[in-house]
Structure formats: C-alpha cells, structure tokens
Amino acid sequence: VYMNIYHERLAKVLVNYSLELKEGMSVGIVGITETEPVMMEVYKEALRVGTYPTLLPQFSHADEAFFSIASDKQLGKADLLYELIAKNFDALINIWADVNTKAMTNVNPEKLTKRQMTNMPIRKILQERERKGEYNWVLTGYPTDSRAQDAGMSLMEYEDFVYKAGLLDKKDPVTEWKSISKKQEKICKWLDKRESLRYVGLDTDLTFSTKGRRWINCDGKKNFPDGEVFTCPVEDSGEGTIRFTYPLIYMGNEIEDVSLKFKDGEVKGFSAKKGENLLRKLLESEEGARRVGEAAIGTNYGNDRFTKNMLYDEKIGGTIHIALGFSADPEMGKNMAPIHLDILKDMKDGGKIFADDELFYENGKFILEL
C-alpha cells in the first residue's frame, strides 16, 4: 500500500510541479514495461489535468539487441520514435529503469558514440523547441532489483531510499520542493555575480572561469529526485588537477580512482586505478570529450550514499562533480561532444570551494549567510 502512495505522490509532483502540465497539452510517457505502476499513475494524473497523454512503453533488452546486431547503416539511421517525440509532443515524462545494469557493458563504445552522433540533429530540435518554450521534459528513476543490487541494498531498502530522496515520504512533497528551490535560487544568484570557481581538496586544486555564465537551480523540474546547482565553465579555462572519490560509471563499466590534469581547459593528463584504457578511449572519442561541460555542487542532504546511478548520485549533499563533454546547458555552454561523463568527488572531509577567492563552502556544506 505504501508503494502505491509513493507512486501517486510521484505522479502528482511530476505532472503538477516538475512540468506544470496544463489542459490541452500533448504528453509522452516513456518507460520500460517494468515501470508500468508509475507509468499508469502518471497517465491517470495527466488525464485528470486535461492533457492528451500517450503511453510509450519500451522493452528492457531492446537496446542490447540493437547494439549487438545493428549494422553501420542501421546505426546511422535516426530513431523515428525519438524524432516523433521531438517534433510533436509538448512534454515528455521519462521513467528510467534498468533490469540489468551490466547489459551494455561489452558494447563497443564507438557504436554508442556513432548512435549518439546520428541522433544529435533530433537532440538539437528538442533543444531549440525547449528554448522557445514549446517543449518541456522531466526524467525520474524507478527502483529495480538490478539497481538495488548495485547499491548494495535489498529492493525494499532501495525503494525507500529512492522515494525519500524525492521527499515522497512527506505528505506534501510539492511544497517541500518549492522551499528547496527558493534556497538554491539564492545560492545561484550569489554565484552569478562571481567570475571564477575553485575546487580544493585531497589531491585537488582546480580552477575554472565562470565569466558570463550563469548558475542553474536544479530543483526537481528536469530530474527527479533533484538537488544540485551547476554551471557550464568557460570551455578553455580549466587549470589544475582533480582526484575523484567515486568511480566514473559508463554503460555499466566502472572506471575507478580517476585523476585528471587540466591546462587551458583541456585534459592533458589522466590516470585511473581500474578502467584506464576505457577512459583513454572515451577522452579520444570526440572533440570536446577532454573539455568540461558542467561544474556542479550536490545539495540533496537526504541523499547520503553512492548507488552507482548518476540520476541520484550527482545530487548527494556534500559532493561536487564535473562532467566531461556535452554542455549541461547547451544554451550557455558551447561543448557539443555527444558524451556527457559525470564524475563525483566527496567534499565532506576538508573540501573547500571558492568563488572569486572567497570561501563559500567547506566540509560539504555552504557557509554563506544568505
């Protein structure tokens, strides 16, 4: 019964808070068939507010089959469903789940990159429509045994973790998220007035220019659960080194103990205790893969553990992350590499962040008085 309540609350948050759906809008609801309980609650809530919802169920092993069988010609043909969504829907609700998080581990990274490049023009259509206010989207996660196993939890524990990270254990999660949004907005406005960002910690001293770039308040409107503030640093400005606490997860592969050295905004040196060859391949895969598309600070202190799922992990309160490749906000950043690789660092043990040489964050917490 409690799971039904979580699903109902999640549907209400996604429809009424994240997307603020209005009567007459056309809405796509995407998820693998295993996510049916949430897809159906979202479908019902979307109907209640007068939209025209379309269920778009997928099959969990389809990607695996596609990448193992598809020819170069097939990899080079754009996804027609993606194109239909991009051109026709006012909004999209994506319920993300895996039944096997290792399903894509042995797929050739070049095939994945080629597919991402093929679909890039469709991605640009979506970005342009979003920029004009014609299209909106939200992504949420659905707990599965596979994800629970990766996180070292039972499914019941993992479900509890996921829904509490979204504040769905509260009677009125929408009000809770509105309050978080206001707090984060103050942080963003303060950072908007600064022109540089410096991360300092264990084996880390990395500086970026943020001149002319703004900070984005991630408050449950695009990802849910949420909780981060991010910017797209000036592309040629990264200087220094950073050593990450947590592994870089790419298609089920774990690249551990990653260190990067930046000069003029580009990775000039790198190392990893495990997966260094894959890291090399990724860094060499596309122009822009060696440059940063995002610098961020996690703010969700209800989310306190690494689960090997970036939808949740990049939000962990007391962490920072950078992403190599594609700019997290393409309107602001100029990096168009097809990959976006998030890597996390824990800041709770002596980590510091400076903006224009002013210390505003220490030991995993903001020390600003706003």
Structural description of this entry:
- The protein is an alpha+beta fold and 370 residues long.
- It has two domains: 2-142, 3-Layer(aba) Sandwich (Thermophilic metalloprotease-like), CATH 3.40.1830.10; 175-366, no CATH class.
- Helix content is 34%, strand content 27%.
- It has twelve helices and 20 strands.
- The protein has an eight-stranded antiparallel sheet with strand order 14-13-10-6-5-18-19-20, with helices on one face.
- The radius of gyration is 20 Å and the shape is globular.
- The model has no long low-confidence stretch (mean pLDDT 96).
Radius of gyration in whole Å, from Cα?
20 Å
Assembly of the depicted chains:
single chain
- The largest sheet has its strands arranged as 14-13-10-6-5-18-19-20
* Overall strand count: 20
Shape: globular
Main beta sheet: strand number and arrangement? 8 strands, antiparallel
Q: How many DSSP helices?
A: 12
- Low-pLDDT parts are none
Average pLDDT reading = 96
Distance between the termini: 41 Å
| Percent in helix | 25-40%
- Estimate nothing, just give the exact number of structural domains: 2
Strand content: 25-35%
Structural class: alpha+beta
